[in-house]
Amino acid sequence: MIRLIFLYLTLASLAPAQETLFRQVADTKTDTHVEATALFSGPSLGGYHPVRVFIANNQNIPHTVRLNFKDSTNYNESLSSSSSFSFVAPPNRSVTTDILVPLAPQNGTVNYHNLEARLSGTMGSSQNTSSSPFSVDHPAVLLSDTLYTPNGSALDSEVSSRGGHSRYSGAIEFSTKFNPKQLPDDWRAFSGFDTIILTDDDWSEVPPGPRNAIISWLRLGGQIIIFSTSNPSPASLGIPADASFGEALVKSIGTDLKLNPKKTVDLTNKRAVKTRLKAVTNDFSSVWPLQDAFGEKSFNYILFVIILIAFGILVGPVNLFVFAKSGHRHRLFVTTPLISLGTSLILIALIILQDGFGGDGTRLVLMEVRPDGQQNAAFIHQEQFSRTGVMTSPSFTVDASALVVPVPIASSRWARLTDGYDSSGAYDIQPSDGKLYASGGWFQSRSEQGQLVTAVVPTRGRIEATARPGTLISTFDFPIETLLYKDASGQWHRADNIVKGNRIKLSPIDPTMVLPILTQNRKLFTERSRDFLRRIEDRKDHFIAFTDEAPAIETHPGIDWKTTTVITGPIAR
Question: Domain span at residue 489?
Answer without folding.
Answer: 361-573
